[in-house]
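Blinded run. Sample ID left blank on purpose so nobody reads anything into the name before looking at the predicted structure. Input follows.
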Amino acid sequence: MQQVTLSLLVLLAGLPALAANDPEDWHSLRVGGLICAGILCAMGIIVLMSGKCKCKFNQKPR
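Blinded prediction complete.
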């Protein structure tokens, strides 16, 4: 299942790059990627700050 998801993600990420021939298309592709990266970064910070992710650093080794 993980390989199928990864393949689909690579396919969806690669298709716009193949169609982008002129510099204007590359600019819109770059801006779209920056927006997507910003949204993912903000979501990651929200998840970390929400308290749902509990990391225990004071664990004793087994």
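Unblinding after everyone has recorded impressions. Residues 47 and 53 are 7 Å apart (CA to CA).
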